[in-house]
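Dock PMV; give full complex structure.
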Amino acid sequence: MPVYAPHKIILFGEHAVVYGYPAVSATVDLFSKITLIPNKAGNIYSSFVSKTLNYLGINDVIVKVETDVPSGSGLGTSSMIIAGILYHERNYDKKQLAKEAFEIEYSVQGMGSPIDTTTIVAGGYVMTNGNLGIPLWEIEKNDKRWRFSNVPAKEIDVIIVYTGPKGSTREQVAKVRKFYDRGRFARDVMEEIGTITNEGVKQLMTGNLEKLGELMNENHSQLKIFGISTEIIEKVVNIGREYGYGSKLTGAGGGGAVIIIPKDKDKIIKKLKELNLIYFVTSTTNVGIFRRP
Ligand code: PMV
């Protein structure tokens, strides 16, 4: 049966989450359809598709992924495909699916966090390492542990803008670590991101878009200090600041996607068109991965 998997965005706390601070991610109303079609053996797959199929002991299928979102946008495509293939073939409960999808993704990348896999599987607003929301599950790997909860909040409109292929997460994380290891200032910034994230979750829960947007702008300015923004990201963020409630890069940075909480949608779209950018006018959703004939 075809699997439908949503893309994900990080609303607050990327990078800071690497140092134990909280983060908030969410699924968005942009779904990819993943279907496994029987075929003769000997097909060529991308690394994470082949890892997932090996894991399941299958080699005689074609994996068809129908999506509008460019891969490498930092919106969780690889996690979606891994979880999608697993869910297509086996009757998982959600926790087990999130865990196994993370293990496979980790084995391909040799690093990473289970934020993407958990968010896509659970759906809705997902807080990592926070004290709010309804506990979901914990995932451990080597000496690290991530605690996840589902934050009850209303869906909000989001415009997601693709600014080009994102920098490799590994490189972006290493870049930020250099700053972090250098001294007090970077640590203070991380601490501030943690505070903003906790405040951001509260504003999500109360639905205060003005405040939420302001906090996103602040979070973006903090991420910029670490050198992970780009010229085009800045252009888009400025459009979001001018005509939206707020805006920030989402995910590892160095390219990838920017999220805007829109106020004047038409104006934002006009400006994005002038820049010839790919964008998606969508919203957050409470729906996680699902199967449907
Ligand atoms: O891979 P992305 O672009 O979704 O970003 C992952 C979030 C980071 O905090 C930058 C890295 C991590 O492993 O948590």
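Observed: The chain has two domains: 3-154+287-291, 157-284.
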